[in-house]
Design a protein that fits this description.
This protein is α+β, with helices and mostly antiparallel strands and about 300 residues long. The chain has ten helices and six strands, in the order H-H-H-H-H-H-H-H-H-E-E-H-E-E-E-E. Strand 4 (about 245-255) and strand 5 form a beta hairpin.
């Protein structure tokens, strides 16, 4: 078996690329390109620093074309969900080191690319600003300002504390019971009044093409969809898994993954529902293994 050319640095580099791009597939492509560029350098003083610089700049290049692709994307765009978060670990003890939530990734998506890079390198990967400046080819004060603007946006996105597994367990169970029973009132009661549903089908499968806002509208959409299309659906199998580090539902039709559903929770009610149905984004979910102590009764 051939040794991994990145060695122990793979997780950190892959995690950086994934957080920059919101796509595990693209992150893997970036690492392949980075290795080719790294091998073309004859003299290397600091291997890890050079690899980090190459990966960061390749991501920044990709983000230029990504903006155009996002504008042409059909419906809401969501990150590519991943089950194996250990493969993306930053090897740092920062507050956001383990946070791969859709909420954070979507906040990063709204930042300017340079802000995203400066924030990730310093606040998540614990890189000193002197090295951030060298990586981005900017002055240290400029990098501090970029990271500060990004940090302000992330903090404005809401509390960073992750709700306990039990809260997800209870709400996912209640969600499933309400949808299958067709109980609009019970389902509506699970949401904040201003809750949002984001469904990513990429124009390739059936999904809401616009964000749906409001508890009642979301509840009626879910139950209406089941009533309208339920008889035409193949037998579905529900699996529980930790996706991006948070409990979620993975729905399979036969051996194929049909969708991933995850909840963002605030004050014991659902604030946001994320549904990924685009088949191009479901390849990194793997088998559904329930988190420890996690079940739906």
């Amino acid at each position: 078996m051939q040794a991994d050319p990145f060695g122990p640095s793979r997780g950190r580099l892959l995690g950086l690329a994934y957080r920059m791009l919101g796509s595990r597939s693209e992150a893997e492509d970036v690492l392949q390109d980075a290795w080719l560029r790294f091998n073309a350098v004859r003299e290397v003083d600091n291997r890890d620093a050079l690899l980090t610089t190459i990966v960061t700049r390749l991501c920044l290049d990709r983000l230029k074309s990504a903006r155009v692709r996002r504008e042409a994307y059909v419906g809401p765009w969501l990150p590519e969900p991943v089950a194996d978060t250990q493969a993306l670990a930053p090897d740092a003890a920062t507050e956001l080191a383990d946070d791969l939530s859709f909420a954070l990734l979507l906040t990063l998506e709204r930042l300017k690319p340079a802000e995203r890079a400066a924030f990730l390198l310093h606040d998540v990967f614990d890189m000193p600003f002197t090295q951030v400046a060298a990586t981005l080819g900017r002055s240290e004060p400029a990098c501090r300002q970029l990271a500060a603007r990004a940090r302000k946006a992330v903090q404005a996105g809401g509390p960073m504390a992750r709700p306990p597994v039990e809260a997800h367990q209870r709400l996912l169970a209640a969600y499933g019971m309400a949808v299958t029973s067709g109980d609009v009132a019970a389902l509506t009661a699970l949401f904040h009044e201003d809750a949002v549903l984001l469904a990513d089908g990429g124009g390739k499968v059936l999904a809401a093409r616009n964000a749906i806002t409001g508890a009642d509208r979301i509840a009626r959409f879910f139950i209406g969809t089941v009533r309208k299309y339920g008889s035409d659906m193949p037998p579905l199998r529900i699996e529980l898994a930790k996706i991006n580090g948070i409990p979620a539902i993975v729905v399979r039709a036969g051996e194929d993954i049909d969708q991933m559903l995850q909840l963002a929770i605030r004050d014991d009610r659902i604030e946001t529902v994320y549904v990924v149905r685009n088949p191009d984004k479901l390849g990194w979910l793997g088998p559904g293994d329930p988190p420890e102590g996690f079940k739906i009764a």
